[in-house]
Amino acid sequence: MTDSADDAAVTGRRIAALAFPALGVLAAEPIYLLFDLAIVGRLGALNLAGLAIGGLILSVVSAQLTFLSYGTTARSARFYGAGNRVAAVGEGVQATWLAFGMGAVIVTVVQVCAVPLVSAIAGNSSGGDIAEAAMPWVRIAIFGVPAILISAAGNGWMRGVQDTMRPLRYVLVGFGVSAVLCPLLVYGWLGLPRLELAGSAIANLVGQWLAAVLFCRALLVEKVPLRLDTSVLRAQVVMGRDLMVRTLAFQACFVSAAAVAARFGAAAVAAHQVVLQLWNFLALVLDSLAIAAQSLVGAALGAGRTAHAKSVAWRVTVFSTIAAAALATVFAVGASVLPSLFTDDRSVLAAIGVPWWFMVAQLPIAGIVFALDGVLLGAGDAAFMRTATLASALIGFLPLIWLSLAFGWGLLGIWSGLSTFMVLRLVFVGWRAFSGRWLVPGTA
């Protein structure tokens, strides 16, 4: 075997070693949320609706601040590649301070605005009963936001130093404790008080803060300076601004798609939601490879090894495309069977075929796009990613979605918009990757 082949084999193993634990971290939350839904669902529709409203508020708030994870990985990985572990972990320290500060602000704002916020989302459904059910959950669960953000920052710097096993353990411990506490507190088992929906919020809170404490402990073990560094904070905020705008573009697209689908009836919106949730899960699977790309590309550029960064980008893209093609094959072959696992409603099953085949067709494209997203994020190319995502949304996704409403195109128009969005992103990130403009060595 040649040196080049040896290097390729080592790189492949390293990608797998980073990607599989990262997939566990990404999958842990949606799996726990399904468990939480199953526990609360036995309290009745009203409590389940309250959990849905509260969970939406918490997820939207948290999703806007994912830069604490992805941005920190990019910056930390460069220092790690340059052999400066102290500076790499230092990025985690500053991101954790930022998480504390932003989390405290969010808790304060949501507590002050909880009544109008929940009422606006729940509307007048069931005479305001849903808003009333959701309110205690929101007021308790929102105190978990700083912990969620601290864990995001912890995931960020640990991925940067190519350690994805400890974050997996921390997250599993946190969700494991929540999973044990949830039924005990909701139903009042083992002599504990029956708290119903509020018990779900407390169980979430305990698990989130346990994971956050473990991430903070990991920083203390590193024995790096813990003081605030405003220059690093400013740099993180600038990258975070670009990534937040990118996330807003995603949310605008998917909220618009759901709103338009709802105008075509219950069957259409249900079919759309089933396939969209599947799409989101498959995106998490592919995103684990993108996380490996972030860590390895950032480290390679930090070490000044631009040729190795290109090699990693190529290999991750190939692996991701193969994985996406395999998933597309599974869902294509199972198209006549798999939808019935999610619903037995004939009207929904009749409508689900359109988005299902769009999802199958998009998966190989997504495999390339998500991999290159990881490469460019690892290179710290956040400004380009922001612009590319906004342009793809404004040119491709949103016009087709709203034209679908105007001309009655239904799910065909909505998912044509999603497909156009993905193709445009492929064009943008593909051009950027081939241009080599992201290959900027050093730690800056």
UniProtKB/TrEMBL annotation:
It holds the Pfam family MatE. It is found in: Membrane. Keywords: Membrane, Transmembrane, Transmembrane helix. The chain crosses the membrane at residues 15-35, 47-70, 95-117, 137-158, 170-190, 202-222, 243-266, 278-304, 316-342, 348-372. The keyword Membrane applies. It is a multi-pass membrane protein. Belongs to the multi antimicrobial extrusion (MATE) (TC 2.A.66.1) family. This is MATE family efflux transporter. It comes from Mycolicibacterium sphagni.
